[in-house]
Amino acid sequence: MKRLGEIITGFFTLALGIVWFLMSFSLDQNNVGGNLGLGPGFYPKLVSVLLIVLSVVLLISLFKRKEKLIKLEYSFTAFFLILLCIAYLVLMNVIGYATTTFIYVLTNILILHDKKTINLVDVVSAFLVSASLYSIFHILLKVPLPSGYFI
Amino acid sequence: MDLGLLFEGLVTIFQPYNFLITLFGTAMGIIFGALPGINASMGVALLLPLTYGMSPIAALSMLLGIYTGAMYGGSITAILINTPGTTAAACTAFDGYKLAIKGKAGKALGMSNIASFIGGVFSLIVLMILAPLLAKVAISFGPPEYFALAVFGLSVITSLAGEHLVKGLLSGAFGLLLGTVGLDLINGSPRYTFGMYNLFDGISFIPVLIGLFAIAQVLLNAESKESIYLRTKKIGFLEQLPSFSELKSVMVSILNSSVIGTFIGILPGAGATIASFICYNEAKRWSKHPEEFGEGSLEGVAAPEAGNNAATGGAMVPLLSLGIPGSETTAVLLGAFMIQGISPGPLLFRDHIDVVYGIFAGLILANIAFLIMGLISVNFFVKVIQIPNRILYPLIIALAFVGAYSVKNSLFDVGLMLLFGIVGYFMKKLEFPTAPVVLALVLGPMAEGSLRRAMIMSHGSWAIFVQRPITLVLLLLTLFSLFFPFLREKLSKKKLSENL
User: Fold this and answer.
1) What is the pLDDT of residues B477-490, one digit of tens each?
2) Out of A37, A74, A89, whose CB is closest to B455?
3) CA triplet B84, B206, B163: central angle to 5 degrees?
4) Backbone Cα Rg of chain B
5) Whole-complex ipTM
6) For residues B396 and B64, what is the distance between their CA atoms, to the nearest angstrom?
7) Contacts of A63 in chain B (CB under 8 A)
8) Given A31, A36, B139, B438, which residue has the most CB atoms within 10 angstroms?
C-alpha cells in the first residue's frame, strides 16, 4: 500500500534532517575543548545525515511502487479528542486542575458515547476520576497541581 | 546469586508498604493486561508517575508487578472472548477460546495461570544467576565498549521494526535526532534548544514515552467504538485447578517453553510476543497430540503462556546487568530507574546491590501474587475489565496528563506529551513503529557520550573501536543484525524463484 501520509512523512523527516544538519555547523563554534575528541556538532551531523538518507530511501521506495495513492480514513473522534486535550491543557492553568479534569472527563465521555447523552453513571465516574486523581497526586504525593480560579 | 542478599531482599519486600504496593502493581497489571488495547508497556508508563516518591525497591517492584501481571492478564480476555488483551497472548486465544466454548474456560484460565507462574519463576532463577555474572564481566567496560553496546542496542530497532525495515530505521533515526536536543554532554553548550530553557535538559523521556504509548493508543482505540461484553458464568476456584494427569501431560511443554521464552527474552529486540509464538509452534511440533492444537488443547494454552512470562525475566537480564533495554517495556522500566536517580548496569551491582536483590525479591512476590490472585479472584478481574471504553479512555488520558505533569511539575512537559501523542497517533496510523523512537531517545545520548569519551581516550583515533576485542565483537554483531533482514529477504526470494 502506498499512502499519501507516508510521502508527507518522508518529506517532513527529510526537511527535519536538513535543518538539523545545517544548524549543526554553528554548534562547533562553541567548542571550547579544542581539537581533542569530537566537537558538539559531530554527532548531530552524523544523525541528521542518517535521517536524510533514510528519508530518501523511503521516498524512493514509495515513488517506485506503481500502486495508486491511498488516502487513509481519519475519524473525527480522534480529531475531537486532540482538540479537547489541548483545551484541557490550556484551561488547567486558568480554572484549576480538579475542576478542569471533571469537565474534561465528562466532555470526553459525551464524545465517545453512542447515544450522545449523559447519565448519572457518567457524571459520577467523571467526579470520581477527578477527585481520586486530585487526592492521589495533590494530597498524597504532594504534587503542586495547577490551580486557577477553582481547585 | 547470593542467598544472603536474596534473604535480605525478601525481608525488605515483605515490609507492609513494599508488600502491598507490589500486590497493587500486580493486580493493576492483570487488569491492564486483560484490557484489549492496553499492553504491559502502556500500563507501566501510565503508573510510572505514582512511583516518584517511592523507594527504588518499592517503585521497581510495583512496576515489575504490572509487567508480570499483564503477561498473565492478557490470557483472560484471550480465553474468554477470543480477543487477546496483549499481543503476547495472541497464541493463547487459539486453544484457550476453543476450550471456553467447550465449557472449560475455568480449566484454561487455571492452566494459563499455572504455566505463567512456572515460566516466570524459571526465568527469574536464570535472571538471578546470569545477571550478576554478566555484570561482573561488564564492570571492566570502558567508553568504547559502552558505545558498541549502545549501537548494538540501537540495531535492535531492525528486529523491533518487523516487516517495515526502513520505517523502523527512520523512527529510530528520528529518536536519535530528538536525543541531540539539550545541553552538550561534554562541554555544556546548548544544542537545538531554540532558546527554550525547558529544553536545556533535553527532551524529557517520560512525557515522550507516555505520549507515544498511552495517548497515541487511546486516540487510535477511540476510533473503533467497541466495548467488551463478557457473558460468562462465574468461575469457581476448584474448576481452575488441573488434575494431576493433566498437569503431567503439559509439564514438558511448560518446561520447554520456559527455556525458550527466557532465552528469547534475553535477546534484544525479541520480546514476549515472539516468545509466545515460537513456544506455541515448538509445543505443537513436539507434542504427542499435535492434532489437538487449535481445537482446544491444554498444551496450546500452557506453552505460549509459560513462554511470555518467561520472557519477562529474560528481558531483565540485559537491562539490569548492562543497562540496555531490549524491548518496549524494559525501555519504560529504564525510565523508572532514571526517575530514582540510579542507572541500571554493572555499577548498579557494585553500588546498589541491595536494590538488585530487592528487585529479585519483588519479582518473586509478583509471580506468587498473580498465581494466587488469578486462582482466587479471576471473577473480580473479569468484572473490572468490563468498564466501558467511554469512561476508560478519558481516565487513561487524565492519568497520562497528571503523570507527565508531575515529573517536573511542568505544563511544558504535558504539552510535549500531547505533541508526541499526536505524532504517535499518525505514526501508528501510517504503520511506523513507535518503540524505536523511545529506544533511540534513551540510547542516543549514551552512544554519543561514550563515543566522544572514547575518542578523547584514543586522542582522536577511530582504531580504538577495532582494537578492543569486546567492542569489535559487539560492532560485528551490530552489522550482522542490521543486514540480517536484507539477507533473509534475499534468501527467501531465491528459494522462491528456485521453486518456481
Assistant:
1) 888 877 776 676 66
2) A37
3) 45
4) 22
5) 0.92
6) 20
7) none
8) B438
